[in-house]
Sequence to fold (724 residues):
Amino acid sequence: MTRRSRPEVTAGLATALLIVLAVRGSAAAEGATATTCAIAAGRDASHNTLTCNFGLTPEQLREATKAAVEGATGPLMDRIEAISRRLGITSNAAQTLLRIVGEQPDVPDERLAEVLTKVATDYVRLKAQVAGLNPDNSTAKALVASAKAEIEAGHLDRGRELLRQATQAQLAAAEMARQLRDQAQAAADAQMLGAARSLAAEGDVAQTERRYLEAAELYGQAASYVPPGHLEEHSALVERQAGALSSQGYERGDNDALRKSADLYRTVLAERPRERVPLEWAGTQNNRGNALLRLGERESGTGRLEQAVAAYTAALEEFTRERVPLDWAMTQNNLGLALAVLGERESGTGRLEQAVAAYTAALQERTRERVPLDWAMTQNNLGLALAVLGERESGTARLEQAVAAYTAALQERTRERVPLDWAGTQNNLGLALQRLGERESGTGRLERAVTAYTAALEERTRERVPLEWAGTQNNRGNALKALGERESGTGRLEQAVAAYTAALQERTRERVPLDWAQTQMNLGTALQRLGERERGTGRLERAVAAFTAALEEYTRARVPLDWAMTQNNLGTALFRLGERESGTGRLEEAVAAYTAALQERTRERVPLDWAQTQMNLGLALAVLGERESGTARLEQAVAAYTAALQERTRERVPLDWAQTQMNLGTALQRLGERERGTARLKQAVAAFDAGLSVVAAVWPPEWVADVRALRATAQAEIRQRQMR
Fold:
């Protein structure tokens, strides 16, 4: 049995259906009420396989379509009514559908029924779709209702026009809604911006009242209120937040605030790229450098300081002298600060010289006439770098230049105008005067230094600027200690210990490890001086403990010169203890400490410090030599003193020269006592005479008497040996 394919079966069924429909259609034309050609709503005419011939021949359908096109349907109304009933639509609608078919020029007569069926199907679907329209817009709803009626009546043109109007009404409403939405968003954005600005103003109040953490929180919250599309305003608020945290860190010793500040500035840099806003980018680089510099000053490493130098250097790529001369000068000043701090931690002077060059450059634009306070600031900073250079040189020229720079700064930095800046410069002036005073025989410069520090503390209070207060307390302790060393009493030294102890309340190892180490070292020195004037060893033991603590942060790798200085001072405390003990253990430890110090305290690098350690080494060797039967240690002591005198000249440091001469005289006297001739003894007398020529008028009488007694003993021994 042969199986036919599905297309042939379908074709057969379609033919059969057409025949049945044709018969029923004929019956309907004779008055039957059957409506089997009615089209179900929603059916897609393009897939309809059923075609009505409406009980009309193709010629009759052609007459009907032609009449509909020409508007002369009167004689054919019965025929049209039959079609409308068969399709289930109004006669007007039927006329419209016939017109649509009739206007198609390429439809042959035999396909008129098929095309009319498809048009009717589309019409029914159209009515169903229009019936489903229910717009929210009241105007569109009325227009759609009218369109429904017109389409139902077969007035498609009018229905289409009404639908077009409904569309336009809804488009207009949508545009209005969008405008209202945009206006509402704009209104909301404006309100949020207003809230951000008023909250930022509240932050300004907190900033003015020096409540920096509160100000930072308010600025940060204000930044969170800024809506999208206002990036510059957001960046500005974040930068203000970073600035408040930077102030908190600088003035209150809050390192965590400084770290957050540096991070926030990095956020601002991402929002303000150099390509878009080069000058603002440069300003943020400068501000970030400030936060990093302040952090770096308090940390033991140099990483933050190097980052600060990099930030300032980047800023100068856009902050050029030609474009923004004052901003260029400001950044040069800040770069000098970072270089100076790095220079203080290095054994060489390269960074310090770079700092001086940066400050000098800044002063080309920061003139007193144009920006007096900025000029004063840079003069102050220049003085700092010159003072550190002066400490590392044997002469006093750089120190005198530093004093001149500070004095100039104070012409504009008055207490009434800028109290904290005035206090800072007073502190720095005290430092330079103290260094000069240490190299002079008199005490005038040292007294002036104490006066300057005391003045600074009137504004640098612990409550206002705890770390700066601690720094000035430390410095004041140094000046008092230097004065105490030149006096027979212990009052100044006790004051120095009190000042150092106060400083350590804020200078903690956790917060500022290097500053803590510095004050520990200074405290050790004052305790040592007191211990030298007391019978017990308690103060000396405390001094050794303080020096040992300082060396935990003052390492050779990190701060070689500070490490060497602390080794020198530790050696001196051990030496004093060794003098009071019967054994030689402490003295040997002292020699080891001095020898270690000389690895970094070289004559080329720090000639006067090298000379001081040579003299101290000589002292320890001399005492060891006195406790031994041989002369080797005494010979080494003489060599150390002689080396010291190469830099400790009478012209440069007369008191130190005199002290070293007398120590040399003592060692020569001890050697002379163990030798047969008088040469060493005569050299000793010459050394005593040289020393007395300087100190006789300035030392306490009892000290002078002791030296003269030693000289007299040497002279007597010479005479006795000459008589033999």
